Structures are given as C-alpha cells and as structure tokens.
Task: structure prediction
Amino acid sequence: MDTYKDELAPWERRSDHYQKVELGQSLESVKGTLKDQTFEMIQSRIAKANEIIANPKMDASSILELGYDLKSVGEGIYGLKAAFEWGISDVVWQIELNGKYLSESLGDLYKTFKPQVKKLFNDAKAAYGEGSVEEALEKFLELDAEISFDFATHITLGIIYLFHEINKERAGEYFNKALNYVRSTSHYYTAYVLIYNALIKRDFGKIEEAESCTREAMNICSNFTEAMYQNAQYNALLNKPDIVIPLLRKVIKSDIIYCLKIHGEQDFEGIRADIGKLFEEIREEQNRDASNGFKELKKKVISLNESVVKVKDLGYDLPKTFFVESLRDDNNEVELMISRNTIFDAYTAKLFLLPIGKSTQKKKLALKEKCKNLIDELEDKRDSLGRQLFEENKKKPFSRFIMYFVFGQFVAVPVGISFGIPVGIYVAEFVLFALCLIFNLGRSGNSGKEILALEEKKERLYWVMKTIKT
Result:
C-alpha cells in the first residue's frame, strides 16, 4: 500500500469542483461559495454516475433539490456530510471556528485571561480566515505557549501543518494534544479530532489504527455521518464487506449524495459487487416508497375534492383555495421520474410530492374547520328557531289563535251581516274559526320543518367533516 508521509495524498488534494473554496473570504462568502460549489460537485458526479444511481441527463432543477443549503454548509463537516472532502478541510475549519458553539466556548475561556491574550487569539483567528497562513501559524504557536489546553488552537495548528506545511508528524502531535483536552469538553470535536488522526494513520499505511480511530469516533458521536463513512472506507481496505455495507446503508439514509461519493471512491474497488447489490436494493426501496407515496397522495387529493363538492352541494360557495389543482401534469412528471428507475429520480419524486402533500393536508384542516364553523352556525340558527317557537307557545298555547280570531271579527261580522242575521253571522264566524286554526297550526308546522331541515343539513356537514382524514 502506498504511503504519503511527506506529500498530500490524492484524497487530500482539493478537487476540481472545489477550486474556488479557499481561505481569504468572509465567512458569508465562504458559505455561499461552498454552497454553489457543492451543486457543481453533485452535477459533475451525476454525469459520471451509473444507471442505477442517476440519469446522467438529470435536469438542473432536480439537482438543486438534492443540494445543500446555507444552514447545512454552516454546520461544517456535520452538515456537509457527503459534500465534505479533505481538500477543503482548512475552509471547513474556518466555518467551525466561527460557529456558535466554539465562539461561545472560546469567548468564555479567554475572559479569564489578560486582554492581550484574547487579542492574540482574535488576531490569529482573523489571520487564518484572511488566508495569511504563515501569520496565523506564528500567532497560534504563540497562543499555544500561553494556553496549553485550548483544543481549538491545537486543531488549527494540526490542520495548518497537515495541509499547508505538509508536516504530518507535527500535525499528528497537535491533533493528539487536542485530544487530551477535548474529550471532557465535546463529543463532536473529540470525534472530529479522531477522524484527522485516522487520516494521518492512513497516510503512514496504518489502516488498522485508522479504522480504530474512526470506530472510536462513531462510538463517541453516533450521529456523525462522515465518521461512519470513513470507517467504512478503512474496513473496505481491510476487506470486511460485512462491516462496510451496513455502514454505507446508514450514511446513504442520512444523505443520498453518499451514493455518488461511494460510486467514485477507489477504496471500495475490492467490494464493488457488494456495493452494486446495495445500490440495487436502495433503488428498489426508493422506487417503492415513491410509488406508494404517489398512490397515497392521489387518494388523499381525490377524497379532499369529493368532500369539497359535498359541501358545495349543500349550498355553500367555497373559495377555490379549498380545491387541490388537477394533478394531471404533476402526475406525468412524477410517473416519468419513477419510470427512469434510478435512485436519484425516485428520491427526487418523493421530494416533489412533499409540498403537494403538505398543501393537501393544510386544505384538509381548513375544510374541517370550515365545516365545524358551518355546523356551529346551523346549531345557533336551529336553537334560535326552537327558542322562538317555545316562547310563543309557552305564553298561551292558543294566544295567536285568539289574536287572529278577535281581529278577524272586524271582517267576519260585517260580512256575516251582509249575508243576513243570524245565518250569515254563523257562517262567517265558522269560516274565520277554521282559517285561524289552520293558519296557527301551519305556522308552527313550518317552524318545525325548518328546524328539521337545519338538523339534516348539520348531520350531512358533520358526516363530511368526519370523513376528512387529517
């Protein structure tokens, strides 16, 4: 096995797609550049991917969906995951050094020292960020003489000696020194130092020791994806596919871009058959998940639209926002993605379905709330009619009848007299009595029918609301 004691190994050199990522830029510029460069990295690797992983002609908009945002980039190695490469270690450390955790920890640490010591740290950090590596090296060495237990200073010196001075033995000394002080402070940065120790061990041809370092890093920080990936590399070099494959499955689950990294990784050449089988299994899983998700979403959309139609049929004019637009065009696009039968196309199809699913869910909740409000309005109206009818009948059951009959005399008496006394009066009074009775009973009956109609409408709305699954 080749060793690289006095030169950068091929995996430690900056790759073509990361040439613009370098020290000397502001932190925000670094993050923006790194975000853009990761997109170019993904694009270039997709063009070289096999037919299981991705369609080489995958469009840019789909690739953007796979890319890293500024938040991920701002989390250093932990957020970059598959986008991390050793060649950009110094820039990634610039991001880490300015991250919230280290900034607060180091701020508290340097409060206890003289102001000139804190100024020395700030000057050293600024020189490093500006790309003045020689000045930064000088100041951090001076700082190390003042404070022997600042692991951040030790990591910085280790990275400078490894990637700029190409003095790997000295770099190893500073990473070991950092390890002495970081273990009691941070699991993440302990694992961080261990993977650099592993890198140096590998450069010296000590693969078993490199594997041991990364295994310890995984145990200390179980969700550190890049530590898992590197442990898989060393186990592949040791020809242990039974350890490698489960690890690679985990890292791919954490970040799908690892498929591209694994595909181009020379360390896995000895177990390509096992990795090929892994990719086929992942493709099948991704396609199955995308197909099932698509079918389930179509059912939800159809169900929602049917519920909207039922509410409209009850006489309510719902705004268009309650309808989910036709999925015909979207259906075709998603089905085309799934039909390409690649890991990335199926994964992108699932990403494509997410906003539609969220929109459908929001509309369901809104429609359910609308039905509840309509039911409340119907109940209020029903209760109001019931109270009104009760109050009218409570006073005197025949109060309206008597009122109609008394006032009716002003018409019935003159009409009866005109037809002759006493027969005309008898006839007129009988007709008035009958009319008052019919009118009184009819009014109560209409109110009852209206209440029943409201109750029926409420029940139908309630049924619609119950059928809306959220």
